[in-house]
Amino acid sequence: MEKSFSSLCGLCKTAHILVIVGAINWGLIGIGAFLGTDWNVAYMLLGNWPFVEWAAYVLIGVAGVFKIFSYKCPCKWDKKA
Questions:
Q1: Residue 2 pLDDT > 90, yes or no?
Q2: In angstroms, rounded to a whole number, what is the distance separating the alpha carbons of residues 56 and 31?
Q3: How many C-beta atoms lie closer than 10 Å to residue 42's C-beta?
Q4: How many CB atoms lie within 10 A of CB 18?
Q5: 22 near 14, Cβ under 8 Å?
């Protein structure tokens, strides 16, 4: 049975949102490349602070790996479904 977003713990919600943000950013980068422009939203928002931009990329990457290996919310692992 599919869980609703509201039933997830804060860690899973954060990872879910970061993965969506990262996917949208990559999609915009691809579309921008086809149009000959740069639509990297992370760079547009955080380009003046490269370390913060890089940290955002790392957090989004960690969230992606977390989502790959977490089939259900970790806070629910100890409970029987």
A1: no
A2: 21
A3: 19
A4: 19
A5: no
What residue type is assigned to position 78 of the chain? D
Tokens of 11: 């860690």
DSSP character at residue 2: P
Give the pLDDT score at 71: 66
If you average pLDDT over residues 41-53, what whole number do you get? 93
**How far apart are the C-alpha atoms of 63 and 20, rounded to whole Å?**
10
Judge contact between 8 and 16, C-beta under 8 A.
Answer: yes
**Pairwise CA distance, residues 78 & 81, whole Å:** 9
Burial of 68 (0-12, 13-18, 19+ CB in 10 A): exposed
